[in-house]
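I am writing to request your help with a piece of structural work I have in hand. What I wish to show you is a protein chain and, alongside it, a tokenised description of its three-dimensional fold. Could you please explain, in whatever detail you think fit, how the structure tokens follow from the sequence? You will find the record immediately after this paragraph.
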Amino acid sequence: MTDEPADSRRRERIQNSLVATGRGDDGTTGLLFGGRVSKSDPRTDAYGAVDEAVAALGVARAEALELARDGRLPGSLGSLNETLLRIQRELFVVAAELATNPDAREKLRDGVTRVDEAMVIRVEEHLREAESGITLGNEFVVPGATRLSALVEVARTVVRRAERRAIGLSAAGHAPGPWLIPYLNRLADYLWILARVIESDQAAQPEHLVARLRGSAS
């Protein structure tokens, strides 16, 4: 038996780790530019959801790359990898803004650690381009017509969750900058349309629910 404190023994075991520090063993995590909050804090929940969205898009991008290597990705989707990668990088900007100590917001930089209008405009351009190439019906779509489109749909739902968390922060008095919520809102719209484009370009016929989006009697 040793009288050495358990905390000291634990830190000694991880002292050479490139990742583990042990500082979060008390249930807290660090904010950008200083300060610590609980890992269950609404801010942590918000940028954690963004982190999940980045990972979900990574799975979709990996699927697109595999299809491209096998010669099964339609030529019309040839730029999909670059588009998804750009979005993943932009989501790091979203996460940085959400993870910033409120007392240090003046240190944020547009397009680097804070969402700016240019990022929203860029997503809107993607959205308009995607919408121009398809004809939408007025029924709910059941995801799963193709694996790639379904993976994009999963990413979309995580982006929506991140959006809800960001809205919750705003309601609690921790409002992010003026462009963060519009960015997430527009990105989720784009990913829904992108899934429809992928289905169309992969010549897949999606399943539909009977309930209509417009003109419903309910």
Notes: Residues 25-203 form a domain with the Hypothetical Protein Ta1238; Chain: A; fold (CATH 1.20.1200.10). The two ends are 71 Å apart (CA to CA). The chain has one domain: 25-203. Residues 213-218 have pLDDT under 50 and may be disordered.
